[in-house]
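WARN no homologs supplied; continuing
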Amino acid sequence: VLFLAHGCGGSATDFFDKSKMCKECIGQPVERYIAQQALSRGLAVIAISSNDRFGNKCWDDDDVAPVRFALTEIMKKEGLGGKKLLAIGASSGGGFVGQFAGRMPAQDPLKPAAVAVQIMGLNEHTLSIPHFPPVAFWHMPKDSHLEPHIVANIAQLKKKYFPVHDQTCNPLQVGDTFFSDWTRMIDEKASAEIVKTLRDEKWIDAQGYLTKDPRRYALDLEMMLRDIPPVASGKVKLKADSAPLPELLNTAYAQHSWCAEGLEGVFAFLFKHAGLT
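OK structure emitted
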């Protein structure tokens, strides 16, 4: 079983496409891809939202007990009792899966067998817990705020010969079909129009990489794109945390966002240390 934890501003609905069973689901591109890859590997995927639904939607200590209860009930209902638990989270969700793993007693059936933490470091107390599970760190070298902490975490664990996987997420080249390759909500024509505008406005360099932080310059981005046909018509949305375009730009810039680089290696690490290979 794989437990997925969203980042601040997100929710469980980020991981699955809208359907009759989940009318609120939005299937954010990278989260959806990770969930689909997990399903293709035979994992049952459970995504849970943090308690905070009206603020920044981040995770905190008070979420540990409700998440344990939710996992227990869902796994019981779906006949998954006794299955090993893995966990992946990003940013606040990454910190939470580390905290959750550290808080579960060694013999607890819901103690994760291995975890993967994206774009977040873990505190020294958590990493010093004797029964803390093997951990994969996904981190972005451009994230100057968190990168030193994460690198220190990895070095600390390697020094103790603790099972740790080190995976970086780097900037992505943005070609004409970049957006349509990632999501069905943006077709090839719309993708090409968006990329052309970004190039014309010097947001993409000669090598195809973004030159500006789309999160920091979100207002400039909105003003730049709002009059191109797919955006003006409402077909392509620009709202952060609920539309694919802003997330994909953040992933391409690779400073602090969900990513899927090295996903196969991360799954291999998780499976190995959960005894699933």
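The beta strands are 2-5, 45-48, 86-90, 114-118, 135-139, 164-168.
OK
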